[in-house]
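Tutorial handout. Part one gives the primary structure; part two gives the three-dimensional structure as C-alpha cells.
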Amino acid sequence: MGSSENQFEPKLATYSVNDQYPVSIQAVYPSKNHTLLLTSNNYVLGTGDNSFGQLGIQMVPQTTKPVLLSWFQESRALQPGEKIVTIGAGSQHTLFLSSLGNLFACGTNTNQQLGVKNHDMMSHVPVNVTEIKNRKI
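Part two.
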C-alpha cells in the first residue's frame, strides 16, 4: 500500500488520521482490487480500486494510499457509542456491520449484493441496508 508497484518483501506502512501518528490497524479486509482497514480508534481507511464506489469514498476512482472513509463521522449515520466492528469486501462492493447490528453497503448492486432493492444502483457512499432490519435470519 502506498505504491502502485508490486512489492515482494514486507514493508512497514504508517498512516495518519487527523494528524495522529501512527494509526493502529485493528483489522485488514482485503478484496480482489481494494482493501479496507479498521483502526483501533474506529476509523475506516480504504485503498485500491474505487471505480464502483466500493471504498465508500466519493470522486476518487483509485488510490494507492489509504484514504479515510469519513462518511460515518460526517453523516452521523452511527449512533453515539456505535462503531463499525467488521467489514466484508467483495470485488466491487463492501459491507460494514456496526456494533448495534446496523448494516451499511457501498459499491455496485448489479447482482443485488448490497442487499437493497434498487438493483441498478451504484453507491459511492455507504447506504443503510434497512431491508433486513429486525428480521429473523
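Part three, for discussion. The two ends are 37 Å apart (CA to CA). Residues 51 and 76 are 25 Å apart (CA to CA).
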